[in-house]
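User: My instructor asked us to take a sequence, write out its structure as tokens, and then describe one feature of it. I'm not sure where to start. Here is the sequence I was given:
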Amino acid sequence: MKRCDAVVVVAGSEKSEGTQGEIEKARSMKIPVFESIDLVPGANEYLVLIFGSEHVA
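Assistant: Let's start with the prediction itself. The structure tokens for your sequence are:
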């Protein structure tokens, strides 16, 4: 998980104990967790999410 930029939860797996552990770990590492692939932002939106708008041109 150290190398992840984000985590996308696969539909139907959200109740799994393993998935819950991965989500908890990601959040503790400040890695964004998306409940659907449709919610993953584009590159510029993602950079703003991670670094804030003041750091993204």
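For the description part of your assignment, you could build on this observation: The mean pLDDT is 87. Try explaining in your own words what that tells you about the chain.
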